[in-house]
Amino acid sequence: MSETGRICAYRTCWRDADHLLCDMHQRRLDDELAWLARQLPDLTDYRINRAYGHKQGGGKPNGGSAPAPLREQLAVLLYQTDDQGYPGVEPLMYEWARSLALNVRLEEGPLKLTQRVKDCYRLMECPATPVYAEQLHSLVRKLTHFTNGEDDDMVIYGQCPGTDCLTQLAAPKDATEIQCPHCGSRWDVRFLQAERHKRIVESGWKATQPELRNALMGLGIAVKASTMRSWIHRGQLEQAGENTLSQPVYRLCDAYHLAVKDLDEQPETDVWKLISGKKGTSK
Predict the structure, then answer these.
(1) In which element (H, E) is residue 37 found?
(2) Which has more pLDDT, 53 or 179?
(3) Lowest mean pLDDT: which of 79-93, 97-111, 160-174?
(4) Which of 81, 212, 234, 266 is most buried, judged by most C-beta within 10 A?
(5) Do 51 and 71 belong to one domain?
(6) 32: helix, strand or coil
(7) Is residue 120 part of a domain?
(8) In a shared domain, residues 65 and 189
(9) DSSP label of 45
């Protein structure tokens, strides 16, 4: 029994606690904040640019847009809020910092915001910390899949389709089946490819010509700049507005359709046929 008679404020914990969190959850919070601060330069500068095909530089994608679908989950985990309402690193750390009464701006970026939260002396006194700590734990678990292994040898297929499982699935390029490391379910790569195709087709993502070409490159589809200009000139790829810099943008799904329509083999484009033959067995 703790000297204070308190219970750990972490939602799923009933351990005694002398402070806001029990020793175990306080150590985990410290470790995860330190891990995130170490990994964010790599995640934001190197791996997010690999999604775009950039060689160097870094930072948030222009206008907050998601990168190539092959890496779109990383952009969500870093900068956005997912479709279930869970915040990525940047919005989470911004709100956490505000709850700590820190004078911060969203434009400071995920790394600086994380460092501000990590170093705040009021961290273990703030009533909101246990809630944010639980969200951080979920984010760190997902981001770990992007830091393990080399991107050159791995393909990321997105979230596991298993029930209530949000684990990112990745496998070597020549894999035919993937087992989820979290829930243990097994998935045929062709089914995961079909699901990815479906997301692209249904995607409303818009981007400039260079961003679209890099997105397609992330899918293993090379499109020359002259080819894309030709699509636009002939009216096959229609402009879908402008970005914040007044540059014309186009829909990824339209460019994807144009890029694959003349390929001799399109094993993943017959979505419903592949989905009907999906393989997803429990452990």
Answers:
(1) helix 23-41
(2) 179
(3) 160-174
(4) 212
(5) yes
(6) helix
(7) yes
(8) no
(9) I
Across the beta sheet with 206-207, what order do the strands follow? Answer: 206-207, 248-251, 239-242
Residue 45 lies in a domain: yes
Q: Would you say 160 and 166 are in contact if contact means Cβ atoms under 8 Å apart? A: yes
The residue out of 147, 171, 190 marking a domain boundary is 147
Q: How far apart are CA 18 and CA 15, in angstroms?
A: 10
222-278 tens-digit pLDDT:
788 888 999 999 999 999 999 888 899 999 889 988 887 744 444 444 433 444 444
Reported pTM? 0.49
Q: What is the pLDDT of residue 5?
A: 64
36 in a structural domain: yes
Pair of tokens at residue 191: 């089914």
Q: What is the pLDDT of residue 24?
A: 86
DSSP 167: P
Same domain, 127 and 231: no
Residue span of the structural domain in which 191 resides: 152-281
| 99 neighbors 118 (Cβ within 8 angstroms) | no
pLDDT in tens, 128-152: 999 999 999 989 988 887 776 444 4
For residue 206, report the phi and psi dihedrals to the nearest 5 degrees.
-120, 145
Amino acid making up residue 171 = A
Q: Which amino acid is at 242?
A: E
Alpha-carbon distance of 21 to 125, in angstroms, equals 10
Distance separating alpha carbons of residues 95 and 82, to the nearest angstrom: 16
Distance CA 56, CA 50 (A): 9
Separation CA 44–CA 26 (nearest Å) = 26
